[in-house]
Each structure stands twice: as C-alpha cells, then as structure tokens.
Amino acid sequence: MFRYKNIILWTLILVFAFTAFMLTRWSLLGSVGAAEGEHYKRLKVFAEAITLLKENYVKEVDDKDLIYGAIKGMLSSLDPHSSFLTPDAYKEMQVDTKGEFGGLGIQISIKDNILTVIAPIEDTPAFRAGVKAGDRIIKIDGKSTKGMSLYDAVKRLRGPKGTSVTITIIREGLKEPRDIKIVRDIIRIKSVKSRVIDDGIGYIKLLQFQQKTPAELEDALLKLTKEGINSLILDLRNNPGGLLNSSVEVASYFLPPKKLVVYIKGRKDEKNEFYTTGSEHYLDYPMVVLVNEGSASASEIVAGALQDWDRALIMGTKTFGKGSVQTVIPLSDGSAIRLTTALYYTPKGRSIQATGIVPDIIVELKRKEGAKGHPVFREKDLENHIENETDKKESTKESVEMAVEVSEEEDAQLQRAIDILKSWRVFKNLKKAS
C-alpha cells in the first residue's frame, strides 16, 4: 500500500511544474476549464504510478531517472523528431551547430527501432573505416542499441580524439554482423566544398547548414567568380539540413532581396515568413541544383524556394521529405525538449512533409551488376511521422529503391547537370534566323 502523503506531494509538484511551464512558454492566461481539469486528474494518475514504482520496484530508483524517462517516453510517442535532451545531450546539440566535435563523423537516425546510418561524412574516421549509408548499428562497444535513444547513441559514439569505439553493424549483402573499430578524431565539418568542375562551370557542395555555412558559401562564391565561372551546380545531395536561418541566408545569395524563401505554420495556423536579405547583387548564374533521398530539411527549403521562383533547375531523385520545424526549449535544470512546433511551406504553399521535393528532371544513379547498394528510406518510412495534410492523393505502393555510391566519372546526375549547362550556353549563343 503506497503512502497517500507521497501521492499528494508528487501531485502538487507536477501540477506546479506543468502550470509554470505552460504559463512561461505559451503564456496561457485565464481560468482553468474542464479540459485543464482533466489534465490534472491524469497527472494524479502519473504521480500514483511513480509512487507505486518507487515503493515496490525490485531496486531503488532515482527520482530524476524516473522523470527523465517519463519525459523521453512522452516526447518519443509524438513524432520521430521530438525528443528530450538531458543537460549533456543539450550541450552536444549546441556543439553540432558549430561544426566541431570529437567523434566518428556519421549522421544517424532511428529506423524501425534500429540505429541506422544516414550517411558518413566525407574525410572522417567513419568514412575511411568503410561505414556506409544504410548500415544498421546493433551494438556500440558490445552494448546493444535496442531501445537506445538517438542522443544516448550519439553520446556513446563521441569522445576525445585518439580514443576508439567499436560498432557492430548489419548490412545488406553481409552474411553476419561485422565489427568496425574506429579511432575518434576532431570532426571539423567544413560545410562548403567548391571547385571549377568544367570550363566555366562552378561546383559547390553543401554538406550541412551550420552557423558558418553562409560565410563559407560567400567565400566559395567569391573564389569561383574570380576564376571566371558563368554557371553553377549546387550539390545538396545527402545534406541532412540544419539551421533554418542558415538556409534562408544561403537562398539569399541566389534570389533577389525580399523574396519569400519559406514560411512556417504552427498549431494555430499563424504564419511566420522568412525573406531573402542582402543587396541587389545576388548571383544570377544559370544553376542546376542536385538533390536525392538524403537531401532533407534545410536542403529542401533551399531547393523548394529556387524551384518555386524558377531560379534553378532541380535534378536528381525525390528528397527525404522532412518538412517539420523543431523548437528547442530549455528547462530549468539544463535539460531541454526538442519539440515539433510547426510545418514549413515553400513560397508557393507546398508542404513537403513526408512527400519531399520532386525534381524537375529525374535522374537516378544506376547500380552496376554485382555492385552493392542499400535500401532508401525517407520521412514517410519513419514510425509516427506527421502526415502531409495538403497532399490528398491516395498513397500508392512504391517499389523499393536502392541507393548506390559511384565515382565522379560514373555520377550520371553530375554529368547530366554539366551537359545541361553546356547546352544552355550553346542555345544562348545561337543567332536568330534573319
């Protein structure tokens, strides 16, 4: 039999915390109605459950672990991108946006309750060790990842330079799990790579949208302009996204000032619009933007804006389809909740949530006979994903796609982009018949 005093104490604490949170974050004013009363009744049940657990569980349990576990479960039941961040995980997230940390250099997610590699980052320990997109990590240093949260996994994978971690992966084509030992290094993610790829054709690859990305992009564009480019390929393939403001600044280099880049709408249908900044001296080179199933979030914002304003030709395969906005809200003890608070829309009002950006020209990478690939998964394949309310078309069963890795010489998407920009020059220079 549990003690009723404890129940009352827990109830008072939780009711106070809940009320303070709601008043502080959403400024809910006014009297508590019938609906709010139901909340408090349910909180009482929650307090009863915790008290029963503390008094009857076979081992003593820390209060903080119980509360953290409850919050984690609550947020994970909403959608794939809402989550609870412990104080350490919150600090890790802040490090991510700055683009420098000690670790392996892989982007990971949870797919079918299994820790899955989205993509290894080029020139990192994981990339050099042979980790592939689609690899499923079933153990980290011998500990099963079953039921492990994304941030717990990240915490285990990161660490000081020079230390090692062993991941156990399963991969299509492998007969049994494989252990891969990787020595951690300082991962300095330079988010922009650039070069002149052909006569007068500039090539820029954006790896992520970080705080430094707009400044790095500006440096790259200045360098390419000095080298005499007259057209540009912007490669957003396998770019998982990042900061919303960064994507707006990136789009500002290719669109006139005061052009709508994206708008977001939350639960109350209130619009928040984001426009290009800068001067009239935006770059108006002919552009091809390359995208694929790994292009997500901020990448889709940029591709969608350039497509809607007819500023660039979008080429490749359909994008990932992450059209939701997450707001990180700090809590009083240094932890935070990462909460999906809105959906974003392209300038013409398209929601790409769970549907993605469809390229103007579809170009798939062909897998050579005997070559290995991995199944493609997108937002729509994630458990509890938010449905696209604006897409009323009946869903059809799609064939299983396979992603492949190719060399630049075999990269049909890149080569097709080069051919199109060369053809554009030819047609532009044709003289009209007299």
Distance between the termini: 99 Å
Question: What structural class should be given to the helix and strand makeup?
Answer: alpha+beta
Q: Mean of residue pLDDT?
A: 86
Tell me the count of domains: 3
Question: Care to describe what's here?
Answer:
This protein is α+β, with helices and mostly antiparallel strands and 434 residues long. The chain folds into 3 domains: 4-61, no CATH class; 100-188, Pdz3 Domain; 192-426, 2-enoyl-CoA Hydratase, Chain A, domain 1 (Alpha-Beta Complex), CATH 3.90.226.10. The chain has 10 helices and 21 strands. Strands 3, 4, 5, 6, 7 and 8 form a 6-stranded antiparallel sheet that branches. The chain has a 6-stranded mixed sheet with strand order 10-11-12-15-16-19, with helices on both faces.
Question: Helices, strands, pairings?
Answer:
Elements: H1 4-26, H2 34-56, H3 63-76, E1 83-85, H4 87-98, E2 100-103, E3 106-111, E4 114-120, H5 125-129, E5 136-140, E6 143-144, H6 150-157, E7 164-170, E8 178-183, E9 185-188, E10 192-198, E11 201-206, H7 213-226, E12 231-235, H8 244-252, E13 260-266, E14 271-275, E15 287-291, H9 298-308, E16 313-316, E17 324-330, E18 336-345, E19 361-362, E20 374-375, E21 402-403, H10 412-429
Q: Keywords, please?
A:
434 residues; alpha+beta; Pdz3 Domain; 2-enoyl-CoA Hydratase, Chain A, domain 1; 3 domains; 6-stranded antiparallel sheet; 6-stranded mixed sheet; 10 helices; disordered N terminus
